[in-house]
Amino acid sequence: SKILLERLGKIKVLNELSPELMADLLHELELKTYVDGEVICRQGDAAEEMFFILSGEVEIIRHVGDELNTLAKLIKYDSFGELGVIQEGPRTADAIARGNVQVYSISRDDFKTLLKEDVTVRDKVMKMAAARLDELSMKTDVEVNEDWHKQTMEFLDKEQVAVTTEEIRSEGETRSHGNASLAIWLGIFID
Question: Which of 14, 23, 82, 154 is deepest in the core (most CB within 10 A)?
């Protein structure tokens, strides 16, 4: 249990959790192991969980038509899967084990409970999601699903965030920078 706490404390999204929430989280995590080349999650599948990497590397690959675009290569203590979990929609990319990989997974429901209970974690996750959304758009040269924007904004509105969806959309219309305005607004009100 002490080793697990030390590992979880190194994960960027979780490293500021209160001791009480970290103790609660321990009971919600599931350890999973993957071998080189194994698919951890597949683009288009339902996003039922988020992942925290304990060892190994994970390559994030998005399919666009017949092309495969590598979006990221994640390492120990990185996390992934938050976009699908937040939007309660399909995975936006494949996650492939590179080498032997160990991850902790947390279910969508448990993760959303964590976001509601800890503002710091919610802020970190929303910053990460905004950055990944922007990166996804830039690296694949495709517009990101507007439903994601709507669902994310609805989730944040429920959490009584000061900036409204209309303000973000209005800002996006006055500038012609694609998803950059959304990422900037998310960053502003998360800070």
Answer: 14
Residue matched to tokens 């979780």: 14
Helix (H, G, I), strand (E, B) or coil at 31: strand
Q: Find the helix or strand (DSSP H, E) in which 121 lies.
A: helix 119-140
Nearest in space to 125 (alpha carbons), one of 27, 15, 45: 15
Average pLDDT, the chain: 75
Among 102, 101, 58, residue whose Cα is nearest residue 81: 58
The model's pLDDT over 117-155, given as tens digits with 9 standing for 90+, comes to 877 777 777 777 777 667 666 655 544 455 555 666 566
Tokens, residue 35? 């071998």
**Tokens representing residue 140 in the block:** 């694949």
Nearest to 22 by CA among 108, 112, 102, 121: 121
Alpha-carbon gap, residue 78 to 71, rounded angstroms: 14
**Global confidence as pTM:** 0.69
**Cα distance between residue 75 and residue 69, in whole Å:** 18
The residue with tokens 């002490």 is: 2
Instruction: Give the pLDDT confidence score for residue 181 in this predicted structure.
Output: 46
**Alpha-carbon distance 176 to 186, whole Å?**
17
Mean pLDDT confidence for 20-37: 89
